[in-house]
Specification:
This protein has 536 residues and is mainly alpha-helical. The protein has helices at residues 16-25, 31-51, 55-63, 84-111, 115-139, 144-158, 161-172, 178-185, 187-203, 210-229, 242-250, 265-272, 278-287, 297-301, 306-333, 343-349, 351-371, 374-395, 400-430, 442-467, 473-488, 491-533, and strands at 254-256, 261-263. Strand 1 (254-256) and strand 2 form a beta hairpin. The termini are far apart.
Length: 536
């Protein structure tokens, strides 16, 4: 019997659930089945991560409620005093700061070990500490440092999630439709937020502790499923990589013109590159059971595009996570249509922001695929988010209809570029041509980009805690400035993509002209040849 590999081993291991299923069925599953399974499991996994992050935002208005007319001090100490908002912001900061700190190391660590095991440990650990926050309700804990410690540990374990799921999906899908596929797949962020909001808001009637217990148990169960069934990469189940599959498919693409057989451009590019036969691929996989060497941390920073996208995400996540942690509280304190909403209604209404985010992620992915321009797409949406933020703050409270419409539009424009950068852009850069295929950088690059973003995510909510004490106008001005800076940081990349588009347009025009010219010359030569053959 083969010995169990250590946690840091890079040997290829088939998940136990898959091994048992293959043994019982007596056959190998198809490539499409594994792709669907990977998308489904990683979708559920990260949806659970986000669902487990929502309870703090839902219970804020219970821990630190508005003072009653009698002046009775309700809520939960230490969050219900004069500095309640500030302390709630500090608890958010503890989670997000350590999440961001751990993110920079989590990616490199994930690249050096089995991502399935790494992700499973992170999910189970996250669930335990989410539950421990809720247990304070039954254990009657009022020590501020207990909540700080629990959030710090939860942040450390949560950092395992994003680098792992992006790297695994990137292992199974090539670049051709990565933006659209990952845009749809990235709906897990919003779906998780929606589920977390609905579950936590519904559980408030039982006691705020249940708002943490249910999402905590959910992510633990999902972590067990990931350990049993998630396949990290095709080679783990003796299948070719997406690049090998696409090379084989593209090699058969031909375009037939009226006079000759012409190979299409994508096929020509692939045919000019050295191809590996299926027999050679199998021999290579059998001969090299070890995973590739992980890219160095500093080397990953030097990949073209990593730096500007990382800093852009800093400001994108600052905006997105301010809404994630404070939107239900803002809705509760802002009368909508001159009516004050309950905690449950405010929590449920806040899910519309995430529903808009689902459409934003899909739209950003589709547009960037069609345009083949990630930076242009991301920058455009961040600029459009500025007027959307202003309109939501000014007119979102006038009626329920305006609140719903403006909240969804804002969610679409705020979460769209955030989703694009953390998925398709990270996967593209993690497989950049400068790496020459000799290193595994997906998780490391993803961790660098999302780690920078998470620093912004840590700063946004805590600044909101301080600024909101003097009104919400300053909070929204901060968000609009952040969106503007996010777009400006991509200016150089946007200019490069525009130049590439213009150059490509002129190149295609010249190619078409040359093709027509060659065709006319061929026709003239043929006519002359036929004329020479006529009898005198």
């Amino acid at each position: 019997m083969e010995p169990c590999p250590s946690l840091t081993s890079n040997k290829r291991v088939t998940p136990p659930g898959i091994a048992i299923s293959r043994s019982l069925s007596g056959r190998q599953f198809q490539y499409g089945f594994y792709r669907f399974l990977v998308l489904a499991l990683t979708f559920v996994a990260y949806a659970c991560y986000h669902a487990s992050r929502k309870p703090p935002s839902i219970v804020k208005s219970v821990l630190d409620p508005e003072r009653s007319s009698s002046g009775e001090n309700q809520g939960w100490y230490p969050f219900n005093g004069r500095n309640g908002k500030v302390r709630l912001g500090e608890v958010d900061l503890a989670f997000l700061a350590f999440y961001a700190f751990a993110m920079f190391f989590a990616g490199h660590l994930g690249d050096t070990m089995d991502l399935r095991v790494f992700l499973s440990i992170g999910m189970v650990g996250s669930g335990i500490f989410v539950c421990l926050f809720g247990m304070a309700y039954w254990w009657n804990i009022h020590d501020f440092y207990y909540f700080m410690f629990v959030q710090i540990m939860a942040g450390l374990f949560q950092a395992t999630g994003w680098p792992s799921v992006v790297a695994i999906v990137g292992n199974w899908f090539g670049k051709s439709k990565r933006g659209l596929i990952m845009g749809i797949w990235n709906a897990h962020t919003s779906v998780g937020n929606i589920i977390g909001s609905l579950v936590a808001a519904s559980a408030l009637e039982l006691g705020w502790g249940y708002s943490f217990i249910f999402p905590g148990v959910l992510i633990i169960v999902a972590g067990i499923l990931v350990f049993l069934f998630l396949v990290v990469e095709p080679a783990d189940v003796d299948l070719p990589s997406p690049a090998e599959v696409e090379a084989t498919e593209n090699a058969t693409k031909v375009a037939v013109s009226s006079s000759s057989l012409r190979i299409s451009e994508p096929a020509r590019d692939d045919l000019e590159a050295p191809l590996i036969s299926s027999a050679q691929q199998q021999h290579s996989r059998a001969k090299s059971p070890e995973r590739g060497k992980a890219v160095e941390f500093l080397q990953a920073w030097k990949i073209p595009g990593v730096l500007p996208f990382a800093f852009c995400l800093f400001f994108c996540k600052l905006v997105a996570y301010t809404f994630l942690y404070w939107l239900p509280f803002y809705i509760k304190q802002t009368r909508v249509g001159a009516k004050s909403l309950s905690e449950k209604t405010a929590g449920n209404l806040s899910t519309l922001f995430d529903i808009g985010g689902v459409f934003g992620g899909i739209l950003a992915g589709y547009a960037s695929d069609r345009l083949k321009a990630r930076a242009i797409t991301a920058a455009t949406m961040t600029y459009l988010a500025i007027p959307a933020l202003l309109l939501y703050h000014r007119y979102g409270s006038t009626s329920m209809a305006s609140s719903i419409a403006l909240m969804m539009i804002t969610g679409m424009l705020v979460n769209g570029p955030y989703a694009l950068i953390t998925t398709a852009v990270s996967a593209d850069l993690g497989t950049h041509s400068s790496l020459k295929g000799d290193a595994r950088a997906l998780a490391t690059v993803t961790a660098i980009i999302d780690g920078c973003g998470s620093l912004g995510a840590a700063i946004g909510p805590v600044l909101t805690g301080y600024l909101s004490t003097s009104g919400w106008d300053k909070v929204f001005y901060m968000l609009m400035v952040a969106a503007l800076v996010a777009g400006l940081l991509l200016t150089r990349l946007v200019a490069a993509e525009i130049r590439e588009k213009v150059s490509s347009y002129h190149s295609r025009g010249m190619d078409s002209f040359q093709f027509l010219k060659d065709g006319n010359n061929a026709a003239t030569a043929t006519a002359k040849l036929e004329g020479d053959r006529l009898p005198v």
